[in-house]
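Notebook entry, structure prediction.
Reason for the run: the old model in the group folder had no record of what sequence produced it. Starting over properly, with the input documented here first.
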Amino acid sequence: MRPTRPAVLVGLLVVTALLSYLLVRQFYSELPLVPWTAIPTVLLLALGEAYTGWTTKARIARKPGTKPVEPLSVARSAALAKASAYGGAAFAGVFGGFALHTAQLLSQDTPRREFFVTTGSFLACVILVCAALYLENCCKVPKSPQGERD
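New structure, fully documented this time:
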C-alpha cells in the first residue's frame, strides 16, 4: 500500500466543496438543519486515531514497557488511516461548500448558526485528516540501521 498523498486529499476536498456549494446553493431552503453533533464525533475519532498512532509508533520502535505489535494490527491501522484520510477530506469538502454558501447569508439567524456549525465541522474533519496521516506515518516499517540486512 502506498502512502496517502496530501495533494490528492486537497484535490478531493476542493472538488467536493465545489460540488457541495453548487448543490447547497440550489437546494438550501429544502435542506434540514446541519447537526452540531458532527463536531465532537469527528474530534473523538481524530483523538482515537492520534492516540493509536502514538502507541503504535512506540510499539513498533519497541520502547521499554510496550508489548510487541502484531503486523496484522498495524496493517489494519494503516487501512483505517487511509480510509479516514479520504473520508475526512470528502466530508471536509461537503462542510466547506456548505460554509461557503452560508457565509453569504450571515445577516440571517439560521444561516449564521449553520455557518458556525459547518465551519466547526470542516475544521474537525481537517483535524481528522491530520490525525489519519499521522497514524499512517506511524505504521511505517522503520528503516534498519546501515549495514544490517533484513
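Summary: The mean pLDDT is 92.
The old model has been moved to the deprecated folder.
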